[in-house]
Amino acid sequence: MNNALEEIHDFLPCRTPPRWIDNALANQDLMLIDHAHCEKKAASTALSLMYRYVDNTDLLNRMSRLAREELRHFEQVLAIMKKRGVRYDHLTPARYAAGLRKEVRAQDPGRLVDVLIVGAIIEARSCERFAALAPHLDGRLADFYNGLLKSEARHYRDYLVLAAQAAGGPVDDRVTDFLEIEKQLIESPDTEFRFHSGPV
After folding, report:
1. DSSP state of 168
2. pTM exceeding the 0.90 threshold for the entire prediction
3. Name one GO molecular function term (predicted).
4. Is the pLDDT of residue 1 over 70?
5. Which DSSP string corresponds to 7-38?
6. Over the stretch 112-159, which tens digit does the pLDDT of each residue have?
7. Domain boundaries, the chain
8. What is the average pLDDT across 20-28?
């Protein structure tokens, strides 16, 4: 698992700012609610790709597995919330995913390539944040977040493999473009705390 985390640290343009960790520890109920939303959205993204690209067998198989895993994570977060007396509720979305998706091209194959790259970056950042948070959390939550690292790291790789397939070659330049946007979103101050927000 250390190798996978090193790979993700090498891939991402920056680490999570320490102030965001402080925000998360001070808002653990909110963090869990938003984490549940993130898992559900990740499953929804995978399913929407399956509906749109029905002739892409590799994508169908990888996204089907990913959607199942994300929904299982969603159920696990809800179970943790129930034990802690945290009610699942609506939240306004973070600016993070919308900020990344703003640059997605409108026409295929560029659209598919970009959506997959954005998916890879979101999964990689989730993995990095689970690892950054785990040492500061109580045993149950730390174990859960450490347990998520392996699947999130695999999801990030799946997305990048599919992006290169859709592009018919390397996507490094496009990844670099999106990572520059991601760095700004992660490091610049945010107005409200979310799992993928900048520091508040």
Report:
1. T
2. yes
3. tRNA 2-(methylsulfanyl)-N(6)-isopentenyladenosine(37) hydroxylase activity
4. no
5. HHHHHSSSPPPHHHHHHHHHTHHHHHHHHHHH
6. 999 999 999 999 999 999 999 999 999 999 999 999 988 888 999 999
7. 18-187
8. 98
Closest of 125, 131, 49, 40 to residue 91, by C-alpha: 40
- Tokens 């090193």 label which residue? 6
Kindly state the average pLDDT of the residues 2-28. 95
Place of tokens 């091209």: 105
User: Is the domain 18-187 a CATH 1.20.1260.10 member?
Assistant: yes
**Distance (Å, whole) CA 185 – CA 168:** 29
**Tokens standing for 126?**
């989730």
The tokens for 198 are 């900048």
pLDDT digits (tens, 9 = 90+) for 98-111: 999 999 999 999 99
167: number of Cβ within 10 Å = 17
